[in-house]
Write a structure and sequence with these properties.
The chain has helices at about 45-50, 65, 80-85, 120-130, 185-190, 210-220, and strands spanning about 10, 15, 20-25, 30, 40, 70, 75-80, 270-275, 280-290, 300-305, 310-315, 315-320, 325-335, 340-350, 360-365, 370-375, 385-390, 395-400, 405, 415-425, 435-440, 465, 475. The protein is mainly beta.
Length: about 475
């Protein structure tokens, strides 16, 4: 809680036995849980040991801790948290309030993410759990800086003798590159003793996963070598998943270890329809893959296939196709044998004036606060159905090739009228299906906010407030002030 005089103070709350209400504690407390763990409720003074002015007191989620994809169970979708929160207006006007493109914003990583280099995972953990104290202006007696953006050579910890004791290890350093057992960060994080442990309070168990990652990182004798960052994105080239290309987010959506910024990308061009000019049931069509991209080396081969049959080769090529719908796959390869594919739909038609049948069975398959998912039964045609056209309140909003469509960017709590038609390759459109009305749900925050803060466990809730004498609010069962 933050009051008018600008000073923060922490408060702890304890749930009652029924779990229906939480009461403000006047001081710290320790409670024995049924599993045998002593749960610590920090006092106001203890809260301030971590909620430091140097770290802006509140220790709220940061951009880099939210800049990654997470599943949303209520919708079954996976999306970037920053994009999701921004889209629903958490940061202000929807889609207009982030300080830059998602891919150009920094991103911390999950400690357990095997697709991210261990040093980046370790630095993320140090930032989230240690840097609130260990940073410039922090309350410690050392000059350590464990913020994520600080490179190891500048952390004032590598080969630096500890000022608070060597914990019985002669020659110990805060970080001894290549020697985890002589590193004080390992010695302190690996014990639960109030006199020596880190973090210094409210934890009773060593975080084994963190200790494994920390030891792996410190076991590298070069970990504190000067950072080489040729692309200036703040990520050491040794761990950068796309060195040479600016990509602070280190996004890697296909989890192949190659960042999206360096990803070989095939582009088979836009879907197209062509007319059988000769009236002989076949037509020559042009294929164009010139928009394919390879940031990490030239493309050396271009192969166009329909199923397993090669129909053409080359960046720009022609193929003879029969009347109907064809799905053509472009395969591109680099000299290092990296492979990428993309598909294009091509419709070939002759003289045709008969429209497809009317789609039936239009129904919602999913409804959210800002999205409606629709499905329907397939139409038939004398040649082939090329696509469908979805209408919302009388206006077309999408042209899917299949029998489903997601209508996004809607307003919460509004009824929308939907109809759908079918089109063939020649552009003949069927009559509209019967209309259905679908109402979006009420607006609510995302079901998951997966912040990259991984506190040593177990720890206690600590609510920030201003002064203990200014009356911290009681909470009811849903966590809201009474």
């Amino acid at each position: 809680m933050h009051h008018g005089d600008g000073i923060w103070t922490g408060y702890s709350y304890e749930w009652n036995q029924a779990g229906t209400d939480a009461d403000l504690l006047t001081g710290g407390n320790v409670k024995l849980l049924p599993n045998g763990v002593n749960w610590t409720y920090p006092s106001a003074a203890e809260c301030k040991r971590c909620h430091t002015p140097a770290a802006n007191d509140a220790l709220g989620p940061e951009i880099a801790q939210l800049n990654w994809d997470t599943p949303y169970p209520s919708t079954g979708r996976v999306a970037n948290q920053l994009q999701t929160l921004n889209h629903i207006g958490v940061f202000g006007a929807p889609d207009a309030s982030l300080p830059g493109l998602i891919e150009n914003l920094p991103a911390m990583s999950n400690l357990s993410d095997p697709n991210v280099a261990v040093p980046l995972r370790a630095k993320s953990y140090l930032h989230s759990n240690c840097s609130m104290c260990h940073r410039p202006g922090g309350p410690t007696q050392t000059g350590m800086d464990f913020r994520f953006a600080t490179q190891p050579i500048n952390m004032h910890a590598c080969n630096v003798a500890p000022t608070a004791g060597d914990l019985g290890v002669p020659g110990a350093k805060i970080i001894a590159p290549g020697f985890p057992d002589q590193s004080v960060v390992v010695l302190r994080d690996g014990v639960r003793d109030p006199l020596t442990q880190m973090p210094p309070l409210v934890t009773t168990e060593v975080h084994a996963e963190w200790m494994n990652a920390l030891r792996t990182w410190l076991n590298d004798p070069t970990m504190c070598d000067p950072t080489v960052d040729a692309d200036g994105d703040g990520v050491d080239d040794r761990y950068d998943n796309c060195p040479g290309v600016y990509n602070p987010s280190q996004a890697d959506h296909n989890l192949d270890g190659v960042g999206d910024a360096c990803q070989l990308t095939a582009n088979a061009g836009s879907d197209q329809t062509v007319f059988d000019t000769g009236g002989n049931g076949v037509e020559v069509v042009q294929l164009d893959g010139s928009s394919s991209v390879s940031p990490s080396g030239p493309i050396v081969s271009w192969t166009w296939r329909e199923g397993t049959t090669v129909v053409a080769t080359g960046v720009s090529a022609s193929a003879t196709l029969t009347v109907g719908i064809h799905v053509i796959t472009l395969e591109i390869r680099t000299a290092s044998s990296s492979l990428a594919t993309d598909t294009v739909r091509i419709g070939v038609t002759g003289s045709d004036t008969a429209p497809p049948s009317v789609p039936t069975g239009l129904a919602p398959s999913g409804v959210g606060a800002t999205q409606v998912d629709l499905t329907w039964n397939a139409s038939t045609d004398n040649v082939a159905v090329w696509q469908y056209r979805v209408y919302r309140n009388g206006a077309p909003v999408g042209s899917p090739a299949g029998t489903s469509f997601s209508d996004t960017g809607l307003a919460p709590g509004i009824a929308y009228l939907y109809r759908v038609s079918a089109l063939d390759i020649a552009g003949n459109e069927s009559s509209l299906s019967p209309a259905i009305s679908v109402s979006t749900g009420d607006a609510s925050p995302p079901s998951t906010m997966n912040i990259q803060r991984q506190p040593a466990k177990p720890s206690a809730p600590c609510r920030s407030s201003n002064h203990p004498d200014k009356g911290a609010p009681k909470m009811n069962a849903n966590g809201a002030p009474k």
